[in-house]
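Q: Hi! New to this. If I give you a protein sequence and the SMILES for flavin-adenine dinucleotide, can you show me the bound structure?
A: Yes, paste them in.
Q: Okay, here:
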Amino acid sequence: MDKLWDCIVVGAGAAGLSAALVLGRARQRTLVVDAGGQSNSSADGIGGLLGQDGRPPAAFYAAGREELAAYPTVERRSGDVVGGERHEAGFVLELADGSHETARRVLLATGMEYRFPALPGIAERWGRSVFHCPFCHGWEVRDQQLGVLDRAAAGARRALLLRVWSDDVTLFADGPAELDAEDAERLRAAGVTVDERRVAELRGQGSARTAVAFADGGEHPCAGLLVPVTLHQRSALAEQLGAAASDPGPVAIDAIEVDPMFHTSVPGLSAAGDVSSQQLPSVANAVAAGSSAAAMIVQDLISEAQGLTAASRLARVAGGTQ
Ligand SMILES: Cc1cc2nc3c(=O)[nH]c(=O)nc-3n(C[C@H](O)[C@H](O)[C@H](O)COP(=O)(O)OP(=O)(O)OC[C@H]3O[C@@H](n4cnc5c(N)ncnc54)[C@H](O)[C@@H]3O)c2cc1C
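A: Thanks. Here is the predicted structure of the protein with flavin-adenine dinucleotide bound:
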């Protein structure tokens, strides 16, 4: 612990790498610590990212790390940040190897844990023939037999959305579908089949093909299955640092509350990407959030060094200096 970093970025997914790039280009002494578990790692390709559409996630993150190597003030380390606390000069973070690092600012870009239904066969197909986001993976399975594992109003909405990619969509309700009359009629009019048989597992050869197998022994081929997810903090780090969580939403259960400048409730602590309440989960949004959060951090550091007040800092931001 012999160095005071301007910023420690925790997590090197899309948000963290993007932030580190901006910090490095602004010559800030930046440490990036990453445990190497980006949420989309199991996917074959990144869908919907301009300039990188369909690129394998591992190749995308490798290219991001390579770009950082050009900036001498940025250092990357592999490993977990396992704890931390705020002190008068900023923050002290503890790494899994027992070392401690001190920084004036910390950016949490730690992503979220995506939890999907506990059904045998989902985990090995996750991000391929089983997905939570049709905008990310719908194109790859277009015009094939598709399904939604869900029920009630949420299931009806997802099934109607999935019709964008195929006219053969089944809502697998895994029991009573719990649809009101309007939703039942909407699905009927859209040609969506509702199957209320109990689902036992997903089957198929490899991860790219799926069939929904029922408890009664039947089976329904399904090239792509849309499943609901909830997003959760991966560790207690944000809580330990004192960051307030936002109210639970339908998807993100305990995202970190941030203001439009990505500041958390703790002075000097920012959050960007899936982990923050500002985020609609996607790689493009994470890249944008990381970039903006980093620019704000640089502004804060410079303003602090110049003795500017929070109000005059805001005036500068509003004045277009980002
Ligand atoms: C299966 C799947 C497929 C997806 N496909 C697409 C797609 O095709 N297109 C699209 O736009 N979006 C897709 N998404 C969503 C997209 O992946 C996320 O919105 C985006 O990756 C979020 O980026 P992030 O940087 O916030 O988090 P992440 O990419 O999850 O990165 C966070 C990083 O922080 C690290 N970390 C966490 N805690 C610590 C700690 N304490 N110490 C050190 N490191 C830590 C993690 O190990 C990880 O490497 C997909 C998501 C999933 C789950």
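A: Confidence is low (pLDDT under 50) at residues 317-322. Let me know if you'd like me to explain how to read the tokens.
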